[in-house]
User: Which sequence fits this backbone?
């Protein structure tokens, strides 16, 4: 029996298992760390956005992979 990490929630996916919460928390921690590291050396808001975008886009796409493969819909299944 396969355990589902995420459940569909409209257009988004929400974690429903410990592995899903761990993946989400580590992704958020990585995004915050990258933002702070790049923002420290940026001279403007556009510098920060241009520097952060490649990292955040890649890591969010990597998180979307297991989330989109989830077969579970809603929170009541």
Assistant:
């Amino acid at each position: 029996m396969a355990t589902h990490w995420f459940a569909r929630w409209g257009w988004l996916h929400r974690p429903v298992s410990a592995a899903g919460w761990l993946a989400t928390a580590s992704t958020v921690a990585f995004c915050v760390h990258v933002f702070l590291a790049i923002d420290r050396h940026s001279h403007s808001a556009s510098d920060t956005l241009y520097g952060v975008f490649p990292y955040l886009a890649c890591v969010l796409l990597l998180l979307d992979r297991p989330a989109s493969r989830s077969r579970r819909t809603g929170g009541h299944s």
About this structure: The helical segments are 18-40, 45-68. The chain is about 60% helix and 10% strand.
